[in-house]
Amino acid sequence: TRNIGILAMDIYFPSTFVSQQDLELYDGVSEGKYTKGLGQTNMSYCGDREDIVSMCMNALKQLMEKYNIDYNSIGRLEVGTETIIDKSKSIKTALMSLFQESGNFNVEGVDTYNACYGGTSAMFNSVQWMESSYWDGRNAIVITGDIAVYAKGNARPTGGCGVVAMLIGPNAPLVMECGLRGVHMENAYDFYKPDLKSEYPYVDGKLSIECYLRALDRCYSLYKRSFESKYVGCAPFSLESADYCVFHSPYNRLVQKSLGRMAYLDYILSGSPEERVKSCYRSFFAEFDGIGLTNESYGNPKLDTASLKASENEYKAKVLPSTTLAKELGNCYSGSVYASILSLLTNVQNLNGKRVLVFSYGSGLASTLFSFVGNYNNNNNNNNDSGKTTSSIVEKCNINERLQQRIKQTPEEFEKAMEMREESCKKQISQGTIYNPIDSIKFISKGSYYLDKIDDKLIRYYQQQ
Ligand code: ACO
């Protein structure tokens, strides 16, 4: 096999953030609701100087520069996002401006969207291109992330912002496992964006959580089936088979509950009620034998408490190391699982031979459970510049230090930025007037792109700080 997977990665996030503790006070909710109840620490955001194009350009530029990647070595570039600023022109086409100087215009791929799932679809397209007869030997790049903002109200603290860039190719240190997947797609109205004049989604919070967990159930069962037919004669698939689990992270509490749900699934899928007596989870779940995976099992406080308790130690060992960025940046939507993979690399030194399960969920809904395996021994040339070990990724991304360097803003400043974005959104659809962003460029880091103006034909212009 070619061992196709993630060769290199990085993340771009804005320099401004607001603390969830400050937001609790400002919003007048009970102390601990956002920090303990949702499990979040801080939330990244930007004003009207940044849009999804400038953020994707920054993610791409950082990746190319840090890993010294030649633009001519790229044969495919895909963007996965749900931050739509044009109903026709893809963000990918805007990113081609960075390829201009190299003269390489022979780059396949465009944008993919479906809520938080676009990045995964872009990732699958890239890997599958490399496995196909159309592959010409060059590497692929996936850019994925969003500006996640909600209208005032209880969903607002679950916003966030960040864009991940990944170099995909053969002989990778983190290889996507062939033939192992559990897919669940369904028609649901849990979260959608029908109002093209606003960045805010329509969201049914309770339904979205139920859809997420139901999708997890289905994907887990199907992944288990594909695992057991690939590894015939091995122990049946269970949480034991995974060293780490990475989840789409709207907020950390749901990630904790998702691992709890997997423990519950292991119990339910371990056989008939008589056979479950042998399960290590028996003492936690015996009283839910009659409920199984029925609707009664979703949003069930007693079952939630039992599954959190049953998976407490496994959460610390298998999930916690992947949660840093999601707790600090908030929900990066399409980029969420990939930011979590980057957090995992940052916090776990040696992933060689380790299996990382990844659950990607996008409302509406599209979801997949798939996996990567750490693979450092296959390289003939470990010392090249493309970041072929995960430790060089960690060094180049320098996540913890970059999080420290951000600028903390007050909830009032955060609200002002949200109003700025609302105004710019309204103006962007009224042709005939020029829009000059009002936010200060002092928040744009050196070398980064920002939105300079939108002209009377709604063409966007960017500058570099
Ligand atoms: N201290 C500790 N815990 C608290 C406190 C407190 N002071 N106050 C509340 N909590 C707990 C609650 O008990 C609850 O815990 P539980 O989840 O175990 O029941 C949790 O904090 C959240 O409180 P709720 O009252 O349920 O929160 P609310 O209904 O106001 O909003 C929601 C939460 C629905 C997630 C909302 O933020 C939302 O709609 N977000 C957007 C949708 C979303 O992210 N969906 C997830 C999947 S889809 C996607 O990725 C977009």
Count of discrete structural domains: 1
Mean pLDDT: 95
Low-pLDDT sequence parts: 378-387
Q: Can you list the ligands bound to this structure?
A: acetyl coenzyme *A
Global structural class? alpha+beta
**Straight-line distance between termini:** 43 Å
Using the coordinates shown, work out and report the CATH topology.
Answer: Peroxisomal Thiolase, Chain A, domain 1
Assigned CATH class: Alpha Beta
What share of residues is helical? 25-40%
Q: What portion of the residues fall into strands of 2 or more residues?
A: 15-25%
What is the CATH architecture descriptor? 3-Layer(aba) Sandwich
GO molecular function, one term: hydroxymethylglutaryl-CoA synthase activity
Binding site for CoA: 154, 208, 257
Enzyme class: transferase
Domain Hydroxymethylglutaryl-coenzyme A synthase N-terminal: 2-173
